[in-house]
Batch of 4 targets.
Target 1
Amino acid sequence: MWSKMHGCIEFVEIFNTIAMYALDGRLLDCAVTSSPDGYYLPNKRQSLVACNTHSAEGIETAYLRWQSRNDIEIGKEQDDD
């Protein structure tokens, strides 16, 4: 298990999280431990959190923005090989 600091995917609020990973690096589960105002967004690759105050639409937009940025970084890593 790992304890990490994560910012809200849509805003800058910081949350403490605890995450459990499989031996192969897959994220198994995650929980926000520092505040009842944050919650975990299910994701296979990385623990993500969001504030309870954001709309589902706002979080979805932020998630898609994060995902597209992450896909670009993965593409760059593959180009470097």
Note: Strands lie at 2-7, 14-21, 27-32, 38-41, 48-51.
Target 2
Amino acid sequence: MRGRVLRVLLLGLSVPAVIAVLVFFLVSWSDATDEDASPQEPQAAAAPDWDVTEAQAEIFLYEVVAAREATRLAPTPTPEPTPTPVPSPFEIAQAELPYAVPPPNVAYGPEERWIGVNVTTQRAYAFVGGKAVYVALVTTGMPGYETPLGEFRINYRKEKDIMDSETMGVPHDDPEGYYLEDVYFAQYFAPGYALHSNYWRPISYFGNVASSHGCVGMLYDDARFFWDFATYGTRIVVYR
């Protein structure tokens, strides 16, 4: 029992204090043993309730010192860096909306609903007259498949379409071939060119990378907004 108490006491002490306590108890134990063996004692003393030998005390002391040294030398863990929140395309567009203006040298009626697509900034704008009411981050035609510049009118709409490269003479097994189902809110403004939802590109492409075969690809919610905003005959101005 005393040995267990001793172990508990030693754990909370510094190394010099541990050594001092152990020496004190060992000396006390030795004196007590000598007194028990004295011929002046008429009766043999009861065996002390002591279960720590000198060798065990040395081992325990070594363990205490080793544990403290391991703690001292243990490397301080490096805290994980807190990731910086990345705004979504919708948050970016919302922040840009108050500053959006029509492209220069474009005429429009005071209440005309029309769409501007900037292939340089990869943005699409919904305008009512000269006021932007919506901004979307988009992905337009990649090099070699650029979205045509100029003024167009929406001439065909399909709420759920299939995009097939073979309609453009490109086989499916060609590196540039594709067959894409469930393409929502397609609004064609020229043969083979449309505004539509794009689910196969990473979200980081929108507003940053021109990656389509000429169409103006949008995130689903953006494509739906433009579907509701426009109709047959709505004017689209593509510029850089």
Note: The two ends are 87 Å apart (CA to CA).
Target 3
Amino acid sequence: MTADMRFALTRLLLTVSAIALLLSLGLGFWFMLLVTQIIAISVCVEVMTQRMPPKLLNASRDNCRRMDGTLSGRRSAREQRALRKVRSDLWAIFLTAALVGSGLLVAIDTCLFPLKLTGDVAAAFQDSPNDFKTALRNRSVDEKFFRWSRSSHRSTNSQIRQQTENLWGAAPIMAGLAAAGVVACLALIRFSYLRTLREFQSGVSARTSEYLNLDLGRLER
């Protein structure tokens, strides 16, 4: 079994294990989040790999051929390994971002606010942006939050009322922080992607020079 096959099999087994664990715990929301993240990461990695600058991709393809135009299996294998490294680097970038983001979501869902109520909160804001708290009461969000807080944290009625007031009062700040976090995450992904491209470009250029010297040496013999 090759290293690539072992890597793919390991990733598959980890994914299946995570899905089985989430389903066994009745965590349907987290299962859907995991599936969505895996699909999104797969699509992003392939798109970003295939959408690299055409000049760079063409240079990598040209490296697969000798100066006389014949295809070299060894050179093709090296270029394929370089492209797989780009994909693995991108997977590492996105998985790190997903891990951090998921950790924050778990912390929020466990300690601050049940994420299953997020849809109701968004709908309440659409109902009445100017009287947000009334819209929340109309959609029974306060009542649902009360039940969640009582069952999860064993809080008293006065504590829950204070938590509710603090939560709705800080909602705009939390939304701003979430937006800032998303922007920062995208900026980090962009920086990491550009660094990966530079590394790939340096490798392609080095192999081009190596192959050119090798082919010229053969012609001089």
Note: The mean pLDDT is 80.
Target 4
Amino acid sequence: MVTQPQRPLTVLVVDEHAAVRSALVAALSAAEEIREVRAAGSPGRAAEAAADWQPDVILLEVKRRDGRGLELCRTLAAAAPDARIVIVTSYPDALEELVTSQARVAGYVLKDTQPHELLRAIVRARSTLHKH
């Protein structure tokens, strides 16, 4: 059986820390599986970018200073209904995992995950994308 090549993914990185966003954008932009990476820090800009751009995958840090990361997760899921969300977080949290699992989250990885593992989680999220 011949497998069709996968089209490169579009990824929106959402993290309130500019240095983290820049590092993630740089790392992901170099991957051949990724066509384009954009980034947003504030919840408003993230929701606007998700709604306007409709990325394939949203890479989201939910531990935010304002404590509203899980709410942002639900907002982004509504703004880009065909996108899959991969949570990237500083440390595991059982309640966070439970709540995000109810918001169509396709992956949950720690920030100290190796870059190739993060990329694998993003690519794996593709398998849950809706077929048009």
Note: Strands lie at 9-14, 34-40, 57-60, 84-89, 105-110.
